[in-house]
C-alpha cells in the first residue's frame, strides 16, 4: 500500500497519495484535491510542482548531479558522442555499433532541407535574429512531411521522424547562419560525422578534428535537462496532441528568452560591456546585487542547481583547452574568471546559492569557434533537440496524459453591470 500524506484544511482533512521516484524524490499526488476540497494549489513558476513522470533525465540540484537514463553527464562527455547520447535519450538504451551506424546513415539521407524551407529562410531580412528564423523553419517542416503530423505515430514513423529532425535542424541551423552572412546554403559533406558536417555546412570547409570534437561535447552537454522552460513548453504544446514540428518550434521560442537559453548570448554581451567599460567587473556585481536595478549577473543562478551546475564544470575545463588549441587569447575569459571568483566569494551570491550555469562559459567557446553571438542560442537549440524529441515521444507513449490546463486565482472585479 502506498504512503499517504494528510492535509488539514480546517473543516476538511484529506489523505493524498505520496509518490516516490527511483532516485528517492518524493511528491504528493494532488490530482483529486480540487474535486474533493475545492482548493487548488498556487505555485509561482511551478518550482514545487512535478508536472509529469519521466525516465529520461535525473537532476539532484543540491548535489550538482545530472544523469541521462542513469549515466552521469561526466561519463557521457568522456565516453560518448552527441549522437550516441541522442540515441540513448530517444530509445532508452545505448546504441550498438550497428544501431549507431544505422542512425548516422539515416541522418545523412535526411540532411537536405527542402527548397521551400531554403526560400523561407532567405525571405527573412539578413539581420533577423536566427532564433526566429529557426523556429519558423522548424514549424514549416510540417508542410513537407504531412504523414508525420499525428501524435500517435507508429513505431516506424517515430523511427523516421527522429533522424529526420536531427538531419533537418543541423542543415537549417547552418543555413540560417549562412543567410546571416549573406552566403548561399550548401549541401552536406556525406563523408563527415554529424558535428563535423554541421561545421562544414556553416563554413564550407572540413573542420579541424579537435574543433569538431569540442563542439560535439558542447552539443552533448545541452542534450536534455528534464522539465526546463523549453522542454515543459514542448510538453504543454504536445499535450494538446500537437505534432512534433509544432511542439519543437514552440520549444525553440521558449529557449530564446535571456532567462533560459538566451542567457548564453546575454553573457557574452555582458562580458563585452564589462570590457568596454574598462574591465572592472565589481561595478556589475554591485548592480546585480541592487534590488532597485533589474540587471542580473547573466550565466549565474539556476532554478534547480543550488550547487555547481555540473555542465558548467565540464565547459569551464573545455574552455581553457579549446582556446589553447585554437591559439585564441580572449580577454573575455579573464573577465569571466574574475567575475566568477568575485561572485563566488560574495555573501549575496553565496547565501542565495548562485553558481555559474551552463551558459556562463559556453559563449566564450562559441566565439573562439568563430560563431557569431546571435547564433549562440540556436547552437543551444541544436543541442537540446534530442531531449525535446525524447520528451515528446515519452509523453505520447504515456497512458493517461491529460491536456495541460492549469487553474488560476481570479483577482479581478466581480458583479459589474452595463
Ligand atoms: N544575479 C543576481 N541575483 C540573482 C541572480 C543573478 N543571476 N539569479 C538569482 N538571483 C537572486 C534573485 O534576485 C533572488 O534574490 P532574493 O531572494 O533576494 O529575491 C534569489 O537570487 C533567488 O532567485 P530567483 O529569481 O528566485 O531564482 P529563479 O529560480 O526564479 O531563477 C534564473 C533562476 C536562472 C532565472 C535566475 O537565476 C536568473 O535570472 N539567472 C540569470 C539568467 C541565466 O543565466 N539563465 C540561464 C539559466 S541555466 C540554462 C538554461 O536554463 O537555459
Question: What report would you give on this structure?
Answer:
The protein is built from 18 helices and six strands. It is mainly alpha-helical and 418 residues long. The protein has three domains: 4-50, Rubrerythrin, domain 2, CATH 2.20.28; 72-260, Citrate Synthase, domain 1 (Orthogonal Bundle); 263-368, Cytochrome P450-Terp, domain 2 (Cytochrome p450-Terp, domain 2). Residues 45, 228, 259-261, 263, 288, 296-303, 352, 354, 357-359 line the site of carboxymethyl coenzyme *A.
Summarize the structure.
With 418 residues, the chain is mainly alpha-helical.
Q: How many strands, which pairing sense, and closed or not: the largest β-sheet?
A: 3 strands, antiparallel
- Beta-strand content estimate: 5-15%
**Using only CA atoms, what is the Rg?**
23 Å
Helical segment count: 18
In the CATH scheme, what's the topology name of the largest domain? Citrate Synthase, domain 1
Fraction of helical residues: 40-55%
Say which CATH homologous superfamily of the largest domain is assigned. Answer: Citrate Synthase, domain 1
Shape: globular
User: Which whole number gives the mean pLDDT?
Assistant: 95
User: Architecture of the largest domain in CATH?
Assistant: Orthogonal Bundle
Q: How many domains comprise the coordinates?
A: 3
SSE sequence, one letter per element: EEEHEEEHHHHHHHHHHHHHHHHH
Q: List the uncertain runs.
A: none
Order of strands, widest sheet = 1-2-3
- Write down how many β-strands occur, each being a DSSP E stretch of 2 or more residues: 6
Ligands in the model, by name, code or SMILES, are: carboxymethyl coenzyme *A
* Structure class: mainly alpha
Amino acid at each position: 500500500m502506498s504512503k499517504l500524506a494528510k492535509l488539514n484544511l480546517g473543516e476538511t482533512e484529506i489523505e493524498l497519495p505520496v509518490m516516490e521516484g527511483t532516485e528517492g524524490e518524493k511528491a504528493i499526488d494532488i490530482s483529486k484535491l480540487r474535486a474533493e476540497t475545492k482548493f487548488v494549489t498556487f505555485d509561482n513558476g511551478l518550482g514545487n510542482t512535478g508536472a509529469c513522470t519521466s525516465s529520461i533525465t535525473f537532476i539532484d540540484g543540491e548535489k550538482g548531479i545530472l544523469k541521462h537514463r542513469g549515466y552521469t553527464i561526466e561519463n557521457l562527455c568522456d565516453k560518448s558522442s552527441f549522437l550516441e547520447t541522442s540515441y540513448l535519450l530517444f530509445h532508452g538504451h545505448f546504441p550498438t555499433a550497428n544501431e549507431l551506424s544505422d542512425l548516422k546513415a539515416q541522418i545523412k539521407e535526411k540532411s537536405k532541407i527542402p527548397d521551400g524551407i531554403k526560400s523561407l529562410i532567405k525571405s527573412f531580412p539578413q539581420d533577423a535574429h536566427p532564433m526566429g528564423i529557426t523556429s519558423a523553419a522548424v514549424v514549416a517542416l510540417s508542410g513537407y512531411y504531412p504523414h508525420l503530423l499525428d501524435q500517435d505515430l507508429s513505431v516506424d514513423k517515430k523511427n523516421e521522424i527522429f533522424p529526420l529532425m536531427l538531419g533537418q535542424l543541423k542543415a537549417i541551423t547552418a543555413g540560417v547562419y549562412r543567410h546571416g552572412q549573406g552566403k548561399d546554403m550548401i549541401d552536406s559533406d556525406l563523408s563527415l560525422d554529424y558535428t563535423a558536417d554541421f561545421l562544414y555546412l556553416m563554413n564550407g570547409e572540413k573542420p579541424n578534428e579537435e574543433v569538431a570534437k569540442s563542439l560535439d561535447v558542447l552539443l552533448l552537454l545541452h542534450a536534455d535537462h528534464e522539465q526546463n522552460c523549453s522542454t515543459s513548453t514542448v510538453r504543454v504544446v504536445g499535450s494538446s496532441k500537437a505534432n512534433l514540428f509544432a511542439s519543437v518550434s514552440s520549444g525553440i521560442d521558449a529557449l530564446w528568452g535571456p532567462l533560459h537559453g538566451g542567457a548564453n548570448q546575454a553573457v557574452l554581451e555582458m562580458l563585452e560591456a564589462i570590457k568596454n567599460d574598462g574591465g572592472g567587473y565589481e561595478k556589475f556585481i554591485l548592480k546585480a546585487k541592487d534590488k532597485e536595478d533589474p540587471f542580473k549577473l547573466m550565466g549565474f543562478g539556476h532554478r534547480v542547481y543550488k550547487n555547481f551546475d555540473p555542465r558548467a564544470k565540464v565547459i569551464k575545463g573545455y574552455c581553457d583547452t579549446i582556446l589553447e588549441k585554437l591559439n585564441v587569447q580572449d580577454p573575455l575569459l579573464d573577465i569571466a574568471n574574475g567575475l566568477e571568483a568575485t561572485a563566488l566569494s560574495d555573501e549575496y551570491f553565496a547565501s542565495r546559492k548562485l553558481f555559474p550555469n551552463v551558459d556562463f562559459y559556453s559563449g566564450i567557446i562559441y566565439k573562439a569557434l568563430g560563431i557569431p553571438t546571435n547564433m549562440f542560442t540556436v547552437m543551444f537549440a541544436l543541442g537540446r533537440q534530442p531531449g525535446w524529441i525524447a520528451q515528446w515521444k515519452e509523453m505520447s507513449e504515456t497512458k493517461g496524459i491529460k491536456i495541460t490546463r492549469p487553474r488560476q486565482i481570479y483577482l479581478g472585479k466581480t458583479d459589474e453591470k452595463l
